[in-house]
Amino acid sequence: MKESTQNLIASLVTLIIGIVALLYGNSINIPSAYRTFLGIPYQVNPQYVSSLSTALIFYALGIFILGVSVGGFSATYSIYRVERQLESIPPPINTQGKLCPYCRTENEIDAVYCKKCGNKSV
Q1: What was the pLDDT predicted at 93?
Q2: Block mean pLDDT (10 aa), the chain, length 122
Q3: Strand, helix or coil at 107?
Q4: Which is it for strands 98-99 and 40-44: parallel, antiparallel or unpaired?
């Protein structure tokens, strides 16, 4: 599997996790800030503080993960472009001659024996 494809899959999974974190943070029920008696506030509601903290943590986590996902998508595009450029480069062609498998000396294309070591070329 190409690296750009792997990166795209990872970015999509990260995007989904970030959206889930934001949706979970949005679904937390935050009660009123104060407990009241006959409409008069008399005490800070402890569930308010913990619920608000949890929601804010999930919002921040979701935004951070979405940022990582966007960075992953931009990296995926860059990797994809580099892979495309590398695929378009033709392999090098040896027009000079053939190499001896024993001593790595370059010989003529039609040579039967190596001019340096004398072994038969393949």
Answers
A1: 65
A2: 85 94 91 80 84 93 94 90 87 72 84 88 72
A3: strand
A4: unpaired
Q: What is the Cα–Cα distance from 12 to 48, expressed in whole angstroms?
A: 34
In the prediction, which pLDDT does 4 show?
A: 83
* Unique residue bearing structure tokens 């994809």: 80
**What ranges do the domains of the chain cover?**
3-89, 94-122
Which pLDDT does position 39 carry in this prediction? 76
CB-CB contact of 81 with 34 (8 Å): no
Question: How many other CB atoms sit within 10 Å of the CB of residue 27?
Answer: 9
CB 73 within 8 A of CB 82: no
> What DSSP string runs through 13-81?
HHHHHHHHHHHHHHHS----SEEEETTEEEEE-HHHHHHHHHHHHHHHHHHHHHHHHHHHHHHHHHHHH
